[in-house]
Amino acid sequence: MVKHQPLQVYERQLCLSCITGIYGCRWKRYQRSHDDTTKWELLWSLILLFTFCLLLVWFYFWWEAHNDYNEFNWFLYNRSGEWSDGTVPILATTAAGFTYIAFLMVLALCHIALGQQLNLHWLHKIGVTVALLTTVVGVISINQTWGQEWDVIPISLQATGPFLHIGALAAVTTLSWIVAGQVARTEKNMFQAVVMLLYLSVLLGLYLVPLYISSPCIMDPSTLKPRPNVIGHQGAPMLAPENTLWSFQRALQMNTTGLEADVAISVDGVPFLMHDHTLRRTTDIEEIFPDRQMDDASFFNWTDLQQLNAGQWFLKDDPFWTVRTLSLQEKDLIANQSVCSLEQLLKLASYHNSTVVFRLRRPPPEHPCYDSWINDTLQAVQQSGVPQSLVMWTPDEQRAQVRQLAPGLIQTSVEKLSPQSLEEYGISRLLLRYNQASTQEIRNFTHSDINLTLYTVNEPWLYSVLWCSDVSSVSSEAPQILKKVPYPVWLMSPDEYRLMWVSADLVSFAVVIGIFIFQKYRMSGMRSYNPEQIMLSAAVRRSSRDINVMKEKLIFSGQPQ
Fold it and tell me: How far apart are CA 128 and CA 511, in angstroms?
C-alpha cells in the first residue's frame, strides 16, 4: 500500500525566532501569525511609542542639563540636609529605561517589516508601564522643584537643532522602507491612503523644519565678537573647595578676568565667603562645634570661623569627581584651606588686577549687623585697598548712599530690568542666569552699553551659543574647560546652512522615491508577503540535493493483508 504524505522542510530562522520570541515570547513557528494586529495590541504599540518619545525628551533634558548638575545637587542638599550626587541614579535609570524601550521599538519595527503580528508579552507591558509612570513622576517632580531648568531644552536646540534635524531626517528616511513595504503589501486602499498621508506629512514637516530653526551660530563669521570674558564662579570649584583662597588662585591660573563669591557677615561684622546658610557642608563644624552645626553661619564670630577647616570636605565628598586628577601637593593645599574673608579675596583680586563680583546675603533680623550690613561690607571693601573700578556692587539696598561714599564702584544689578531703567538708576552691569536673557535681549543690552554677565556657564556648547549672541562675559564653575574653547564649537554662514539643509532634503527625497519604487517592484506579483515562504524558496534554490523538497514524497510501508 502506498501512502502519500506531504513533507515540508523549513530552514531554521534564528533571527525571526529571536525577534518574535524576545518581543512576544513566540519562539515556535506555529505561534507566529501574519494576521492583522488586534486593536488591543495596537493600543499597546501606541503606548510604547509614546513612552519612547517621552523618554527621548527626558534623556535629552538630562544630557543637556549637565551644565547645571551642581545646582541640582545643591537643591537636593537643601531638602535632605545630606550632600550626594543625585544625578547618578537619575542618569543610570534614565539610560537603562531608554535603552530598554528603544530596544522594544526596534523589535516592533522589525515585526512590521517582516509582516508579523504584534503581540507584546505581558512582562514587557509591565516594563513599559513602569518606565512610563516613572518618567511621568520624574517630569512632575522636576517641574515642581527645578522648573526653570526646562529652559535648557530650547536653549540647547540653538546648538544642536541643525544636527538633530539631519539625524531625524535620516531616521524618517530609513523608515520609508517599512512604510513602502506596508503600502505595497496591503490590499486595503483606505489603509494605504492613511499610511501614506501620515508618513508624507511627517516627511514634509521635517523638510520645512529648518525654516523655524534659529541659532545665533548661523551668522557671518566675520561679525563674530571677541571671546567673552570668563569669571570664576566661587573660584574654580571643580578643582578646589568653593569660596576658598586656593579656589580663586586656581581660577586666576585659568585666565579668568574676574572672580565671583557669596558673602555673609559674621556676628562681629567681618564679611566672609560662604554660599550656604550653615557651615555643615563646606567645613568641619561637626568636629569643632558639634552643638552649633545647625546655626546660621552669620552667628559665628571671625575667630571661631578661622578655626574651621574649609577644604577636607572637598577631598572627602569629591563633588565634581575631580579629586583623582589632583596631585599630592594640590591635595595638601586643599586639606589646609580655611574660611576666606572678603578682604582676603579683594586683596588677591587687586594684586592680579581682576574684577570681583559678590552676592551679599543680609543677616537675620536678630543679628547685630542686621542694620549695618551694607556699611560693614563697604568698609571692608575700602580697607582692602582694591581699586573701586574692580568691584561690582550688587546689593540694591542703599545703593544711592553707596554711590555717594564709593562712586568708583561698578553698580551691578541682579534683577532683570530694561536698558532704559538700568541707565536711569545709574547701573552699568547686569548679572543674570543664562536662561533669563534671549539672544535678542543680549544684543539689545550690548547695543545699550550694558555689560551683561550670565551665569552659570560650564559647557562649551552653551558658551559658544552665548558667544555668538554677543554676550560680554560669563560666570563659570569650570574655567578650566572654557579655557580650551578658543572659538565657538561650530559656526556657519546662512548660505552654508541653507546648502546643507537643501542638500539633505534632496538626498532624502531621492532615497524615499527610490525605496518606494523598489518595494513596489519587489512586491509585485505577490498576493501576500510571507517571509517564511521566501526563505524556504531561497533554501530550495541554494541546495541541489534538496531538489525534491516541497514535493510529495512517496513513503512505502508494508501492510499485512
Answer: 33
The grid coordinates of residue 382 equal 575700602
The letter for the amino acid at 504 is A
User: Taking a C-beta distance cutoff of 8 angstroms, is the pair 402, 394 a contact?
Assistant: no
The whole-model pTM stands at 0.88
Cα separation, 478 vs 457, whole angstroms: 8
Residue 547 C-alpha cell reads as 531538489
Does residue 392 surpass a pLDDT of 90? yes
**512 CA to centre of own chain:** 32
- Tell me which residue of 517, 496, 432, 463 sits closest to 180, measured CA to CA: 517
**Angstrom distance (rounded) from CA 346 to CA 378:** 12
**C-beta of residue 189 within 8 angstroms of C-beta of residue 453:** no
Which pLDDT score is estimated for 5? 53
473-476 vs 451-455, strand pairing mode: parallel
User: Which residues are CB-neighbours of 538 under 8 A, at least 6 positions away?
Assistant: 11
For range 113-129, the mean pLDDT: 92
Rounded distance between C-alpha atoms, residue 468 and residue 487, angstroms: 10
Start-end of H helices in 209-271: 245-253
530 pLDDT above the threshold of 60: no
Whether 533 shows a pLDDT value over 80: the answer reads no
- Is residue 505 within 8 Å of 207, Cβ to Cβ? yes
* Collapsed DSSP state (helix, strand, coil) of residue 146: coil
The span from the CA of 263 to the CA of 275, in Å, is 7
Report the DSSP pairing between strands 410-413 and 429-433: parallel
Mean pLDDT of 149-157: 96
Asked whether 302 and 330 are in contact (CB, 8 A), the reply is: no
How far, CA to CA in Å, does 211 sit from each of 92, 166, 170, 244, 493? 36, 14, 18, 48, 15
pLDDT of residue 34: 72
Phi and psi for 240 in degrees, rounded to 5? -155, 160
Distance CA 66, CA 72 (A): 10
